[in-house]
Request: fold
Amino acid sequence: MRKPIKAYLITDPTLYPKTPLEFLDFYTRIVEQYKPHFATYRDKDSNFNLALMEIFLNINQKYRIPSLLNSNLELALKFGFDGVHCNGAQMQEIKNCKQKFQYVFFSAHSSQEIQDADKQGANGITISPIYQTPSKGTPLGIEFLNSLEPANFKAELFALGGIISNQQVQEISKTKIQNFASIRYFLG
Reply:
C-alpha cells in the first residue's frame, strides 16, 4: 500500500497580499483548501514582514501545520518557528539548526546534495527543479525522482520546482518520492 502524498507549501511575498487583513484571508483560504503538511514562510530578499509572519504562525498553529522560516535561524528562534528551511549555501548549518529546531529542511539540486544534507541530519529535503520553472535551469525530471531510493535516506524527500497542476502532482505521486513542495500550485 502506498503512503499518501505529503504537500509542502512555500510562500512567496511577490505572490501574496501585503496587508495583514488581506494576507489573513488569503492564507487561511489556501490552508483550508489544500491542507499542507508543512509550510515555509519564505522571503529571499530577507525583508520579512513581521505582521504577516505572526499571522502565518497563528494560522499554522490553528491548523497544526509545522511552520518553517526560510534561511534565517535567528528570526526563526525569535518568533518561535518549528523549524528552518536552509538554502543551498547553508549545508553546514543543518547540524546547528537540528539542535534548536524540530524541523530542518534543505534545498538540494543534485544527488550529492541530497546525500550530504541527509548525512547532516535534515528532516526534509526538497529536490529541484523537477519541471521547467522560471530562472531555475534544466529540470531534473520525473526520471530523476524514480532513480532515488527513499528507503536509503532518513530525511523525507519532496519534489519541487515548476509544480503548478494537479496532473503534475499525480505524476509525482506515482514516483518513489511521492511528496511535493510548491509555491505556485497552492495559488491555483
